[in-house]
Amino acid sequence: MAMASKILRSGYRRNCRIYIQTVFQSAFRSISPEPSIISHHYSHRTSSSRSLFGIAFDIDGVLLRGSKPIEGAPEALSQLYENAQPRVPFVFLTNGGGVLESKKAFELSQLLGVVVSETQVLLGHTPFRKLVNSYGGVRTLAVGKGEPASVLSGYGFQDVVSLDEYAFEHDDIDPLKQYKTWAPIRTAYSSQQREKKIGAVFVVSDPIDWGQDIQVICDVLRSGGEPENESGPQPPLFFAADDFLYQSLFPIARFGMGAFRLALESIFTRLTGNPLIYTSFGKPQASVYKDAERTLQHLASEIIFKDIKFPSPDNLKEGLNTTYMIGDNPYTDICGARAAGAPWYSILVRTGCFKGKENDKCFPAGCRQCTRSSRIYIAARRCMLNFFSTSILSL
Length: 395
Ligand code: G3P
Ligand code: MG
Known about the structure:
Blueprint: H1 2-30, H2 35-46, E1 53-57, E2 64-65, E3 68-69, H3 73-78, E4 81-82, E5 85-86, E6 90-93, H4 101-112, E7 121-122, H5 132-135, E8 139-143, H6 148-155, E9 159-162, H7 163-169, H8 191-195, E10 198-203, H9 210-222, E11 237-239, E12 245-246, E13 254-255, H10 257-272, E14 279-280, H11 286-305, E15 322-327, H12 330-340, E16 344-349, E17 378-379, H13 384-393
The structure holds SN-glycerol-3-phosphate and magnesium ion.
SN-glycerol-3-phosphate binds at residues 58-61, 94-96, 206, 241, 243, 246, 256-257, 329.
């Protein structure tokens, strides 16, 4: 078994080396970095101890804009596969969401043309799973686009109501309802369920109807979870992310969940005189990077040991030397990777929120020690293939 382990380990390293070699060669064709940089990267490429790396891809503004793949993204991802199996451990680390990880994996497979497993998908709301022990039994209000209630139910929350359903349960709570042309979603809740107060509010994904949503959330928070009451202690409030802006199809970045949170906070404080008490998840929170690191390590072990039935604990000890965060938003992707420290190393692309020519001033990509002037840490090409080349060169 020791021999098999050695062979497989060297196989993984060889694959990694081939991958780096490919991008190195392609980079060599497409850009001309300074000779000292080339020799530096080359020495990394040839060192097997440096070969174990993983990649975390941001989605919006890096791989997709809306539901459109960014030019070259599918081809770039396909480089990470061999015989339809990933040969480099990588995950999708996004602050977006609205559907379960399994459904998102399916959607990404369709859009990007590669096989994506549920394990590779880390969404803004994925950490909500950890809150089931505390809030799984209370009536929970789920807010946002997509299927926010199904997400929480899928995580094990027992009594979930979406904000749209909740608004439907409460006559006249939205005075503008008659002007809204879309049909309300209706679920048959028992009167016993309806009488239960809301014990926690989860903003799972970007809210759609800000007017209705801010009104109803304020009603719930102000009243201790029973809108008919005048006041009560604020139930816990959780946001899956706090992005002020994110890149969609429109050329200028759009308001994200953080912008919604600011609007809600301002109105809630004006209404009650109290500060809004909330917890936000998603990048740049350190725990997100820890979770991603664990997943990448697990995927690396799977790649290394896929043919070994009973790997020993020693086999699984080998750690990743570097985990790359490839993102378009300095305030989330890069800020978080910098704060997480080693083995994280951030790469900033220009296909999304960030449009600057030099590295970002507040949260420069690279590692903590990197200087602000290091242009090599920014992917300058619109095309993801070239982007990969320049990115991995900055090892
Ligand atoms: O709604 C999605 C947005 O907030 C950020 O997505 O993939 O750039 O982290 P992403
Ligand atoms: Mg992004």
